[in-house]
Design brief:
With about 90 residues, the protein is an all-alpha fold. Helix content is about 65%, strand content about 0%.
């Protein structure tokens, strides 16, 4: 179990995978995500739901998305969410 002090140090604390992916999509789009992280869910007919399903089952891919998000947080202040179109 983590302590409150540790949670404050974790930049992902309180963030859902959906929030992380929505932020990254707003910044990079599906093409940009596919370029930065080579996973099929960003290349072939990408959608929020299919990407979330894949990332929840695939720890190594989720870790890459989380690392990209941490870099995103360091570079830029938060932006307004743009809806992700569903196919």
């Amino acid at each position: 179990m983590t302590t409150t002090g540790e949670n404050k140090q974790d930049p992902l604390h309180g963030m859902t995978l959906e929030h992380i992916l929505t932020e990254l999509h707003a910044r990079y789009g599906w093409d940009g995500l596919a370029e930065k992280i080579n996973v099929r869910c960003f290349h072939d007919n990408p959608s929020l739901n299919s990407s979330l399903k894949f990332l929840r089952k695939t720890p190594w891919a989720r870790a890459k998305v989380e690392r990209l998000f941490i870099k995103h947080l360091r570079r830029k202040p938060p932006t307004r969410h743009q809806p992700i179109p569903e196919n």
